[in-house]
Amino acid sequence: MNTAKMKARLIAHLDALLDQRVAALEQSIQSAKESRDSDTKSSAGDKYETGREMIQQEVDKFEGQLAHTRQLKVDLGKINPEKRNRQAEFGSLLICNPGNYFLSIAVGKVEIDSDNFICLSLASPLGKAFYGKTVGDELLFNGKKIVVEEIY
């Protein structure tokens, strides 16, 4: 596995995934706003206002998720795929026994060319455990021994 190219492919894959999330959230916001705006006022005024408020809460929730997703895109854009890290930090691709990890954004398992990677943030328990580790370091996580074999 060419780790430099794999890191760039992982970033591109995650960026495309975030683009899909942004598009889906924008569509959800648009649909909810249309639903809210087309809700006609009935003689039961309280029911009308309650319905509109519930829809507005949905819009607010989607807008919060959209802002978070856009921030993830910004964070992902800060990773230089060409940078070779000496220790585990944000943007590091870790080849371990067992498993491969990409310290970036919390997305979970990603498969590229039959290779599996766990994309996790440094805020996660495992991300925190990896932080600062170097090649040859071992860590015990949930009763499982993980050996860092390569860092890129």
From TrEMBL:
One example GO MF annotation: RNA polymerase binding
Region Disordered, annotated ranges: 29-50
Domain of life assignment: Bacteria
Biased composition (Basic and acidic residues): 33-50
InterPro entries noted in UniProt: Tscrpt_elong_fac_GreA/B_fam
Protein name: Transcription elongation GreA/GreB family factor
Species whose genome carries this gene: Mangrovibacterium marinum
Lineage of the species this protein comes from: Bacteria, Pseudomonadati, Bacteroidota, Bacteroidia, Marinilabiliales
